[in-house]
Structure formats: structure tokens, C-alpha cells
Specification:
About 35% of the residues lie in helices and about 20% in strands. The protein contains nine helices and twelve strands. The strands form three sheets. A six-stranded mixed beta sheet has the order 7-8-9-10-11-12, sandwiched between helices. The protein has a four-stranded mixed beta sheet with strand order 2-1-5-6. The chain has a two-stranded parallel ribbon with strand order 3-4.
């Protein structure tokens, strides 16, 4: 997924329709979707093996080049003539305000031949990985069959699997190590209706439903300004969010999934997994657009918070 940004100034309303006129100042491309997860991994000092599908188009070339420029191997990308590279274009006025988003995508399932190539690339890499992250954006690459095959391979090689799900495949991630939906995804995936204020009893009920339906090891829910909830069957708790100047929540879930995966693969307990992920997710919300967490800023924030505790 390629994130495109058009930055400009808004000083008047169009005479043609009640919409703002944006005087374009700058255009920018960033790595989005699962590639933003890879960016977070790189920024935190680890090495991702990024596998996805792009189109045989100009946007695909831009995407591949951005991977290289940011220290991410593009060797595992799969080119497909059957689908365009996914592009999300955000138009931002006066530096901070997102005025419009335009999505260009084909979310149909991969053709059988591409599907086979994808699975074989993933299975080949799993034995040399410390963790596998499913960054599922419901764009047609992941489905029940290949998810099951990849998870089975992870179990075979004792590699933890971390999931950032969406609605379509929500209940297909059986036997995964850490399952990280946000509240909206949880409500859609389980059909739960959380009453306000959200209580730990409601969250525990949702976690138990996931344990029963999918036999996951750890449930980890992100709840925006409500903080995070984590449950590994042995203990569970809610961790409140830290006070932030929120500008943009885009990409925060990617950052949380990345930090949770790194912490989990290092064998940290759920207290630290939740705290580190919570801090990192909050930090990127203080930036405009989809951006990864910066290592030095993250380190400084962790030191400040843990020291004050």
C-alpha cells in the first residue's frame, strides 16, 4: 500500500461547489499498510522480511524504491499484472487538516498462481524469523486458507504469530500467539456491543470469546484514548493511555503491532508488552500522516514514563 499526500493551503471556498480550494504546495509518497509495520520494525533496530503484492505500474515502482531507500529488502515483493498497486491519497490543508482521502485498489483475492508464489515465499522465510506479523488490511492477499497454512508453519517452527486483523478474516486466525484488534474490529468481528463506560468485565468477556472460538494465546485490545487491554489467560488488565496532543491516529495500529511483536519475540511479559506498545502508539498520534515511531524519541519517552513510575 502506497500512501500519497498532497499538502496545500486553503484560503477560499470553490465557486463551483461548497468545497475548499487547495493550493498545492507539496506532494509526498510514504510506505503504508503492512509496509508501515516494516518501517516501524526498521526504525526500532530490527530487520523485517516484508512480503506483499504490488502491481506492475508506476506506483509499484515508487513503492519498491521507497522500500530500498528505507532499508527494507524488496526481494520478496510479488509483481502482479492482475491488480494495481493500492494507493491511498490524502489531501491535507493548512498543514494539519485532512480534507479528503481517495482510495485506488482492487481487493479481490489473488489469482491461484500468485497465491502459490506468496505462500511459498512466506513458508521459506518462517524458519529464520523471530516472529511473523499478519498486517491484515482486507485487501485480498490474506484468506482463510493461506492464513491457516502460514500459522501451521509458524507452530511447526515455534515462531510466534502476531495478528493485526480486519473484519473479513477476523475469525480465521486460530492458534495465533497474540491477537490485536481495536474496539471497532472487535465489535464487528464478534458482534459485541460495548456499553459505555467500557468495563474490564466486558473486555474479559470478549477475550474469553476469542479464546473459545480461536484458541489464541494472548488477546490485546487497543481502545484509543481508553488505553489498551491485555489478557493471556493467566492475568489481564487495562492500561490507561498517556496524555497526548493527538493530531492523527493513522498508522497507530501498525506501530502497536510492531512493538508488540518485537516485545513478544524477546520474551517480555505482558505488562511490558502492553506498556511499550501503548507508549509507541500514542507517540505516532502526535504526528500528521502515517509515520513510524522514532527509536530515540521512543527510548526517551519510555525512560521518562518508567522513571516517573
Amino acid at each position: 500500500m502506497l500512501d500519497a499526500y498532497i499538502w496545500g493551503d486553503v484560503k477560499r471556498i470553490s465557486p463551483e461547489a461548497p468545497v475548499p480550494v487547495v493550493l498545492v504546495k507539496n506532494r509526498e509518497y510514504r510506505l503504508g499498510g503492512a509496509a508501515n509495520v516494516a518501517m516501524n520494525i526498521v526504525k526500532l533496530g530490527a530487520t523485517p522480511k516484508f512480503i506483499s503484492v504490488i502491481g506492475e505500474d508506476a506506483e509499484g515502482k515508487i513503492f519498491s524504491k521507497l522500500l530500498q531507500e528505507n532499508g527494507i529488502q524488496n526481494d520478496f515483493l510479488i509483481n502482479s499484472s492482475d491488480r494495481p498497486t493500492i494507493v491511498k491519497t490524502r489531501i491535507i490543508g493548512n498543514q494539519l487538516q485532512q480534507l479528503l482521502r481517495i482510495d485506488e485498489e482492487n481487493t479481490s483475492f489473488l489469482p491461484q498462481q500468485i497465491q502459490y508464489i506468496f505462500i511459498e515465499k512466506v513458508k521459506k522465510l518462517i524458519p529464520e524469523c523471530h516472529a511473523v506479523i499478519f498486517s491484515d488490511y482486507d485487501k485480498g492477499i490474506l484468506n482463510k486458507e493461506n492464513i491457516t497454512e502460514i500459522v501451521d508453519e509458524c507452530i511447526k517452527h515455534n515462531v510466534p504469530s502476531i495478528v493485526d486483523p480486519k473484519r473479513k478474516n477476523f475469525l480465521h486466525y486460530h492458534h495465533t500467539s497474540l491477537f490485536k484488534p481495536n474496539l471497532k474490529e472487535l465489535q464487528e468481528g464478534l458482534g459485541f456491543d460495548f456499553s459505555k463506560p467500557i468495563t474490564i468485565e466486558q473486555l474479559r468477556k470478549a477475550a474469553n470469546a476469542l479464546f473459545d472460538k480461536m484458541n489464541i494465546d494472548t488477546a490485546f485490545f487497543t481502545m484509543s484514548d481508553e488505553g489498551v487491554y491485555i489478557n493471556n489467560r493467566k492475568k489481564d488488565f487495562v492500561l490507561p493511555s498517556h496524555k497526548r496532543n493527538i493530531y492523527d491516529v493513522s498508522g497507530a495500529g501498525d506501530t502497536v503491532a510492531s512493538v508488540a511483536a518485537l516485545a513478544f519475540s524477546c520474551g517480555l511479559d505482558i505488562d511490558l508488552i502492553a506498556e511499550l506498545s501503548n507508549i509507541a502508539g500514542g507517540l505516532v498520534c502526535e504526528k500528521v500522516g502515517v509515520v513510524p515511531v522514532e527509536r530515540n524519541e521512543f527510548r526517551a519517552e519510555c525512560s521518562k514514563i518508567f522513571f516517573s513510575v
